Give the backbone structure.
Amino acid sequence: VLWGQFGLGLTLAGIGYGNSFLLVAAGAALLGLSMGVGFTALAALVAEVVPLPRRGLALGGYNSCIYLGMMASSATMGTVVHRVGYGGGFLAAGAVTLATTLIFWWEQRRRRTASSRPGVV
């Protein structure tokens, strides 16, 4: 999950600065690869932690969050790009992705540490 999401954030941050077809195409390929790794691993994580009777609902919610996030990004990034430029817009999207990935990583680490302590649930 982390590698895919970190790759997605870094690729988003850099793709807006591509100044040739080759750089943008390479960025798009890395973006797709990162999304494939990160999103697939996230879906597997959801399936792993949710009880079987609720798994379909959880995966539906997961996919809804992905597409609602993409919709929100499409609805807001035009204004961001207009104000800070194309590269700045992608940099902002990458920064948000990296920040949320760090929050996810920290929360997962905190939970693992708490669950490894005796008497902590």
About this structure: The two ends are 24 Å apart (CA to CA).
